[in-house]
Amino acid sequence: MFAGHYAAALAAKAAEPRAPLWTLVAGCQLMDIAWGALIITGTERVSFDPSLPGSALVLEHMPYTHSLPASILWSAAAALAVRAALKLPWRAAIIVGLVVFSHWIADFLAHRPDLELWFGGPKVGLGFWNYPVPEEALEIGLLALSGAAWAWTRGRAGQGAWAAPLFLGLLLIVQIVNLLMPPATSATPMGATALAVYVALAAAAYVIERRDAAEACRA
């Protein structure tokens, strides 16, 4: 799952505008950002099986990023970090933490059983990846609904109409490119590419909010 994770970020922004968009966009992929770094170092492991439907990823070992206890710790740490560093209200900070945890929920739906319920415990996953067309439809549907909610709240706040379709279009382009690319065969290049994409999307969200702030000052 890729675009579906960002649905949580946009829905959260619609529900709590005080949470900076870039924190939500980075937060929804925080566990994968850490995962990308850890597979590059070999701390967590992934292999590839192109014969698998949907996704060729075989996620062999990722307890520090995608186990249930780890996801709870990442979520709590993110909430406390944005509360301390950005002086966000508790509600906004908790929303950021929930967006981080939404990653595990979405992965539970999509992944084959590779998510540990506790460190060294049984692995779970409903395996929606095995049905690629419905899985892609679910991702795009969630993104469309959350994007519409975000665009509506932006309109109510008098913010520019350009940002929502631009950011949604960017997400769709990345999703399509990901679908059209040949399956990955090496962990290190894949991890590096994933990190670059996640950082670029968080940077785009930051630019959007800076532009919003500049327009508000001119109004």
Number of strands: 4
Give helix % range. 55-70%
Strand coverage percent: 5-15%
Structural class: mainly alpha
Q: What's the pLDDT, averaged over the residues?
A: 94
SSE sequence, one letter per element? HHHEEHHHEEHHH
Helical segment tally? Answer: 9
Q: What number of structural domains do the residues give? A: 1
How are the secondary structure elements laid out?
Blueprint: H1 3-15, H2 21-27, H3 30-41, E1 45-48, E2 57-61, H4 63-66, H5 68-86, H6 90-110, E3 115-116, E4 123-124, H7 132-156, H8 163-180, H9 187-218
Antiparallel strand pairs: 1-2, 3-4
Helix pairs in contact: 1-2, 1-6, 1-7, 2-9, 3-9, 5-6, 7-8, 8-9
Jot down its keywords.
mainly alpha, 219 residues, 4 strands, two-stranded antiparallel sheet, single chain, 9 helices
Description:
The protein has 219 residues and is mainly alpha-helical. The chain has one domain. It is 69% helix and 6% strand. Strands 1-2 form a two-stranded antiparallel sheet. Strands 3-4 form a two-stranded antiparallel ribbon. Helix 1 packs antiparallel against helix 2, helix 1 packs antiparallel against helix 6 and helix 8 packs antiparallel against helix 9. The chain is globular, with a radius of gyration of 17 Å. The N and C termini lie far apart (39 Å). The mean pLDDT is 94.
Please summarize what this structure is.
With 219 residues, the protein is mainly alpha-helical.
